[in-house]
Amino acid sequence: MHYRRFGRTELAMPVFSCGGMRYQYKWQDVPEREIPSDNQANLEATIRRSLELGIYHIETARGYGTSEIQLGKILPLLPREKLIVQTKVAPVASAKEFQHTVERSLMNLRLDYIDLLGLHGINTPELLNYSTRPGGCLDVAHKLQSQGKIRHIGFSTHGATDLIVQAIETNQFDYVNLHWYYIFQANWAAIEAASQRDMGIFIISPSDKGGRLYNPPQKLVELCQPLSPMVFNDLFCLSHPLGRQPLVHTLSIGAARPQDFDEHLKTLPLLDRADEILPPILQRLEQAAIDSLGEEWVRTWHVGLPHYSQTPGNVNIPAILWLRNLALAYDLVDYAKGRYNMLTNAGHWFPGANAAKVDRLDLRQCLVNSPHASKIPALLKDTHQRLAGDPVKRLSQQ
Fold it and tell me: Which CATH number fits the domain that encloses residue 145?
């Protein structure tokens, strides 16, 4: 295993982390006695495999249903000094409620302290305010930190890049969990901002949200040769920018079973050769996008697009066009359908509406700064015809 200094926490962070949102029994809390023994045995085998590989960072959240309470049956049996345990708790208006939830997490995990507490899902200005205002959730976290119950404080986010940067610039967090991978590079400015403040940088769900890379389309498989799409994406995230000190410290592996680590491990011997291995693959991927979409579109499609809150009907134009690009350029149709049909259904975790009603909306004013304003309404309609299906809920809502 390779390790990187996790920013100002000074923790030696493995480049892969054991994320805890896929091996638990249920997304809802249930009594411990209702958790099947085979599910608990699989979770414990996954944790032991993680530690065998040198992946000592075990990450979960209060919002991951039975994950915490199931981890609480194995973590106290392991050498505490070797573990880096992280849980996450959503910020709320009531600081007292937030404190109660954090303390419940500690009870579930059966630990005296947690190494990393993340404020979970700072996705909106309101949630950032709950976190940072005087007497808010961060003040509670600092109090618990002074009591030795928390070592370091960070935040996770699915929010817009400018909001993430705003949270980083408060300089009140030690690390950040955020989305960034080959198919979604919009948050690079946030990564740079976090690096400038010596924060730990943790990438969420690079294999699932990064394109469902555990089940990639054949076109993407061919474009990523000689690597699998999963190994390519891991290497890209852990080596960017090429030729300089990489800024990302760790990637979450949402392991559901012990063998889910295996493909990721193929990345480790390649880290010192990324400058040699990645450029031909990156060139093929870029050319495939140009061949499918046209060079002008590839270079400028995102320019001047409005935020969904400034669009009639709250249509999330940037997200819709991004998903269309992925479906056409890389055959990531199943991924694009899954994400597209979350629009209007996922709240602030994937906000805005799809293009179902675009024929009834006048988008001219909101697209005035786009070089592609005249054709975007038709492209939105085309995307809806390609990708629309049954509404999709977040995993935690299923």
Answer: 3.20.20.100
